[in-house]
Design goal:
Layout (H helix, E strand, L loop, with lengths): L1 H44 L3 E5 L5 E4 L11 E4 L5 E5 L5 H34 L3 H42 L7 H61 L1
Antiparallel strand pairs: 1-2, 1-3, 3-4
């Protein structure tokens, strides 16, 4: 009976110890986490380290930037000495001017690039073949040519009327030209000059339209070549 009782007691003790083991482990884990947290807070309390150079070229390491060195530029280091941030020196007036000029140049370049890209997209979306570009050119030139033909016809009418008025002038001999004929001649001459300027302007416009569509056609060819090359390269990569 005593032996059985002893065995029973040892079994009970073993079970109690086994039941307490997880509790002890959890307690140790809590203590370790708390210690790690305290250590991390201690490191954080130390703050960052700043590396900076004075006028004599001497390198300094401080936990904060002195007032006289704020504008000199610095490097912020973490507790392992690894750079985490760089602060550039303050610019003087000339450096600011150069920086602003460069920023403006880059802004204009970016804006021009956007214009070109937008125009390229419109070109590819507007035409699917070169013949469509030629058709658009023909339509644009047709409108201008109609204006030129109208101006030429009006010019012919004005020229005929001017010839008639000149015939009347000659028929008068040495007699003074009637005011009504003189005024009409002046009006006809003014209109002839206007039509001549209009025709010259439309001829320049025709040259501009031709040059523009020539450029559009060449650009369209280049863009299509790039697109087809990209598609072909992608297809070949897919086969590998």
């Amino acid at each position: 009976m005593r032996q059985a009782s002893a065995t029973s007691i040892r079994g009970t003790t073993t079970r109690a110890t086994s039941a307490q083991a997880p509790t002890v482990i959890r307690a140790w884990l809590v203590l370790m986490l708390a210690a790690a947290f305290v250590l991390s807070m201690a490191f954080s309390a130390q703050g960052a380290t700043y590396k900076w150079v004075d006028e004599k070229g001497i390198v300094h390491y401080t936990d904060k930037m002195p007032a006289e060195a704020v504008n000199k530029g610095s490097v912020e280091l973490n507790k392992q000495g690894i750079q985490v941030k760089r602060i550039d020196p303050a610019l003087n007036a000339e450096q600011r001017r150069v920086r602003e000029t460069e920023d403006e140049r880059l802004r204009l370049v970016g804006k021009q690039r956007e214009v070109v890209e937008r125009r390229d997209r419109a070109l590819l979306q507007s035409y699917s073949t070169e013949s469509e570009i030629d058709l658009a050119r023909t339509r644009a030139l047709g409108t201008i040519d109609a204006q030129v033909q109208s101006a030429l016809a009006y010019t012919a009418t004005l020229s005929t009327r001017r010839d008639e008025l000149e015939t009347k002038r000659k028929g008068l001999g040495n007699k003074p030209l009637p005011p009504v004929i003189e005024r009409e001649l002046a009006t006809v001459d003014t209109e002839l000059n206007k039509q001549s300027e209009l025709i010259a302007a439309r001829q320049k416009e025709i040259a501009y339209v031709n040059a523009r569509y020539d450029g559009d056609k060449q650009r369209w060819r280049d863009l299509r070549a790039v697109a087809e090359s990209t598609i072909s390269r992608t297809a070949n990569d897919g086969k590998k």
